[in-house]
Structure formats: C-alpha cells, structure tokens
Description:
By secondary structure, the protein is an alpha/beta fold. The chain folds into four domains: 26-137, Membrane-bound Lytic Murein Transglycosylase D, Chain A (Roll); 141-241, Membrane-bound Lytic Murein Transglycosylase D, Chain A (Roll), CATH 3.10.350; 251-367 and 517-594, 3-Layer(aba) Sandwich (Rossmann fold); 370-507, Response regulator (Rossmann fold). Helices cover 39% and strands 19% of the residues. The strands form six sheets. The protein has a seven-stranded mixed β-sheet with strand order 12-11-13-14-15-22-21, with helices on both faces. A seven-stranded mixed β-sheet has the order 17-16-18-19-20-23-24, with helices on both faces. A three-stranded antiparallel β-sheet has the order 5-6-7. A hairpin with a 5-residue loop joins strand 5 and strand 6. The longest helix has 23 residues, at 266-288. Residues 6-23, 75-89, 147-154 and 215-222 have low confidence and may be disordered.
Amino acid sequence: MKIYRYITVLFVMLFATLALYAQDKNFFIHTVSKGQTLYSISKMYNTTVEEIAKYNPESAAKLSIGQKLRIPQNTTNDTPVTVVNEEGKDGIYHTIQSGETLYRLSKMYGVTPREICDANPGLSTSNFRVGEVILIPRPVKTIEVKSGNNEQNNNDKKEIEIVATHKVQKGEKIEDICAKYGITEEELWAANPDVKNRKIKKKMVLNIPAPRSTVKPQEKKIERELTNHEIFIKVEEYKDSINNSRVGKGLRVAVILPFLLDSYAPGEQGRMVEYYQGFLMAVEELKNAGYSFEINTFDSGSKDKSLNGLIESGQLDGMDLIIGAMYPNHNKELAQFAQKKEIPLVIPFTSKEDEIFRNPMVYIVNAMQSYILPEVTARFCETFPNANVIFVEDTIAGNKKEFIASLSEEFDSNDTPYTTIAMSNITTQETMLPTLKELLKEDKENIIIPTSSSAKTLGSLLPALVQADIIDTLDIPDYKLFGYPEWQIHAKDTREQMYDVETYFYATFYSHYSLPEVTKFQHDYYRWYNRNIQNIYPRYGMLGYDTGYFFLLAASKYGKDMAEKINDMEYNSVQTGFKFGRVSNWGGLVNKKIYFIHYTPEYKIEKIDFDK
C-alpha cells in the first residue's frame, strides 16, 4: 500500500513537472543583472512579484547576479499574445538564442530590423547577445483602400502601411498632424477613408501611414542576410536622415514644479524656488555660451491635483525637454505623455518611479538604492583591494541591511575577510583595545563599517575610535572608517574626528565649502539673489543648476540621440554628477553616478570621481 502511494505521488509530481515545462514556449528567460530586484523585474515585464516567484520559487529567498528566471508570457490556448504597455504599443518579449540575428528575428516575427531597434532603444551591437531579452513589437497593421472614385476602379485595391495612431488634441489642425509625422494630407486621408467630409474633431483617433518618402524598399530587396553590425549602421543612418540634432536651434523646455501658488507651504515652496533659481543660473550661463532656449514654467500644484488639464491643453506639445515634477502621480501622468510624444522627461527628485521600467523617455536623477549599491560595492573593492572589514552592529539602529548584504556577497565571492561585532565591544573602554587588537590585521587595510547611518551611531563610534588611537597600549594596526551619504549632514558636529580616523563615505551628491566649484556657485548665487543658499541636503539651488546645465546642454548638442550620447558629455558638477544607464533595452535611464568622499589625515576633503 505504501509503495502504491509512493508511486502515485511520483506520477503526480512527474506530470505536474511535465505540464509546467510543456509551457516553456510561453516563457522567456531573464538573466538577473546588477541592481535588479524582483519588484523591478516584475515592473519591466508588466507582471507581478508573485507570478515570478510562482515559477521561480528560489527567487523569493535570494536573487543573485546571473541568476536565470522563467518569466511567463501572457498566453491564451498556448498561443503567445501581445503584452500591451502604457504608450499603446504592443509586442512580446524574446530571449535571444544562439545563432539568432536581428535579421532572422525580423523574419521570424514579421517586423523590420529597424522596428525592433525602435522598440529597444538600449539595443546595440555590443549587447545583442545570447540570453539578452528584447521586446519584439507587434507587426504594423495595413488597411485596404480603393484606388479610385468611380465604379470601374472599385475592385482596384492597394495596401497602406499604418505605423501609428494619433489622438486629435484640442485646437489641432490637419497641417499640424501631417507636419508632425512627415506625411501629406492626401496620405493621411487615404489611411482614414471613414472620416466624413475630411473633418477632424477633438479625441478622434486617426491612422498614421508610413510616409511614401520613408518606405524602406531596401529592406524588401535584401537577398542576403545582413549582419547585426550592418543593420545597426543602417538604423543610425536613418536617424541621421531625419535630423535628430537641434544644434543651433532654440530648445523648447517645460519646467513643472510645485510652486504651490494657491497654498501655504513655506518649506516646500522655498526648496522649489531655490531649485528654479539655480536652474535659471544655468540657463543664463548657457545662453552666454551661444545656446538658445524657450523656457516654459508651470506650477504643478499640490499632490492631490492632476496634470491632465495641463497636458490636454496642448501647452506641452512640441517641447524638446520636460523637467519635473515632484509628486509620483504627477510624474506618472507626465511620463505617459512624454512617451506618447517622444519627449525626454527628467525627474530630478524622487527615485520611486515605476514608469522607468517600461518607458524609454524617462531619466531618473536620484537613483533607486538597488541600482546604486552594486556600484558602491564594486568601487569599494576597487579602492580597498586588500581589505579586512569589520562590521560594527548597532542594535538600536541597524538601517543599512541592504548595503551590508551587498558587500558581504561581494566579499564572499572574492575571499575578502570580514567579521561582525557588537557596537558595545568598541564603545566599552574595557573591551575596546583587546577587540581591535584581535580583529585588525597587520598585512591588510582595516576598514570599519557600522551597520547604521544614524547620527547617534556615528556619534558613539567616532569618539571611541579616536580614543582607542590615543590610548593605544597594544600597538594595534591602523584602521579607517567607511560609511554613508547621510554623514555629510552629520559632519558639521564630527568633522575633526572624521579627519582623525581617516573616514570615507559614498555619496550620490556632495557639496562642501572647501571645494572651488561650490565656493564659486555660492558667490554667484548671492550675487544673483542677494541671499545665501539654504543649508539643507541636497542643496536645491545646486541641484537646479546641475540638472539644468547638464540636460539643457545634452539636449541642445544631441537632440533625439541624447540617450545614446549623454555619457560622452563632460561636465564638472557643483553637487550632483551624472552617469546614466538603461534599466532594460526598452526602459528608461537611471543615474548611477557615485563619489567617495575622503577625510584625509592632512585635514583635507577629497572628492573621488571614479570616471575621471
């Protein structure tokens, strides 16, 4: 009886496994890369964390770089269907297999190589490789129209390729729509035979045909298989042919911030006004350098209001760049609009924006921690290749578990020695020196890292380490302290001790009066506005200047090629640096720039920029 039950269970498990893997054609394989979490992966593919965990149970416990995840496609009756994203385009996800090329994928899915490239702005020759996931757009639809108005021609039909749809906005004219898509009125009407009397109305949806001048006969005439390199060259030539650059032209920019003109919120208003003042300083400096701008400024209002009224008014149409806003609901509305109109959207403040995972037009300045920590970990191991690490655990405020876990995983992979001790072992005078003597190594660079960034932790640890150095009777090896961005706020109370211990911390933004670029900005700001910049972090005036200068210059120089070329631009920031990378081939860009700030024994502050 027991054997029968055992065999029955085995058969049930076998059939369940076979049933699961029989659906593999409805899955694609995602390879986890730096900074990705289950949440961010679920947002990339418009699914849920629970759905991913269902098919990858091990992922719920731990997610590691290089791990393979089976992601289900939306399916009906075992037939893949399209995944619709927020800008209205649709497609399916495909994991590149060995031997596949852009040309072969285009034939497989019935789309052109250029359409695949357009759906994956981050795709290039270098990252078209086995295991990479790309979005395959749905083939463009065609409609049949009669080529004549008399009866004898009623059977003479031809196909028109429809490449997009357009929702008519209030006050929009036929000539505006035709100019936007580079088509003639006759081409537009031929693609919309059901429009009566050739009259358009607000919210009417029109088919947009492929312009006859941009039909790609060369793709239809290809008799041999083009290499990926050849295809990407053709894509770049096409981009150049439609005049992406705006050098020498006036850039139209919208700045959307919560100035809160209809309410009283002095703290928030002060920050937004200061940000805008710094932004205007950047505009003036670039104008003096020969660049031209049309700046359109809008008050987004409080977070309980919607920006749809502003969007529907048409005032943002035709912008080359949008900067803003502050609140997540406003940024979501702007992101959807920006994607539809193909306008770059720079979000300077919040990092919690889901739109970045499926919207190639979004730039996040203040990056999510999951994307920053791998950068910090890599730079730490580069800076201290011979490290011996002591984690000091503060049981009162251990708020950096993600960072400690990221470092520990890296240490395990490269055999960096580390240990964890309680804060009391160092802050208690009787155990302080014996503990350090036991843990510090003569042949290593000893780095002490607290597990908390709080002012209380730093205020307890620093004096103890300084005291240990002063009263050292056991000849203990030298040591350094490493920590967190928040320490620049606490530095005004602990600066002398940070020099004494030789302290490092990482930061995504940093300003200090001793740095020449900071001194110059503060002097210029006072000259402009007859007041000093607020002593808060980040400094909003500096943030406005940095984002304004960097993105206005990048958009002016590169136009629609900005995403591909933005990291080529040299810029010496006042506070916030920039180094962008896409979250996926079809997603937006996140700022991964970090600095290490070093308080040297010579009582100087060194701002370490790893990209110089």
